[in-house]
């Protein structure tokens, strides 16, 4: 697989979150590099914990009404990552695990950024207020 590249369409308009999303893309790209999978999984777990905490705090501070959906997505990703780590500990570093990891991360990242994170983008716009920002379903 080729490297995943940051695109402006992934931007949520918040420098901190955009930088953290770029970091995830870097981690996705490291999967193909032959680096020990233990290191990549550890970096992903660290990333997920910090990023999800930061993102959820920010969304709470702006009164984002679908914070619970975001938290659910984050919890599902973390549970998947925990399962993968356990499987890796039992089975070791294999090409199948690397392939599955990179494929899942690409699909998850694209879906999460372009659907779930774009839904809160208007709430991060300083001109949006809870009464004027659209809801995730567009209303």
C-alpha Rg, in Å?
A: 16 Å
Distance between the termini: 38 Å
Unreliable stretches covering 5 or more consecutive residues: 127-136
**Can you summarize the main beta sheet?**
none
Tally of helical segments: 4
Helix content: 55-70%
Overall geometric form = globular
Assess the beta-strand content as a share of residues. Answer: under 5%
Based on DSSP secondary structure assignment, what is the total number of beta strands? 0
Structure description:
The protein is mainly alpha-helical. The chain contains 4 helices and no strands. It is globular. It starts with 14 loop residues before the first helix and ends in a 15-residue tail after the last helix. 17% of the residues are buried. Mean pLDDT is 85; it is low at 127-136.
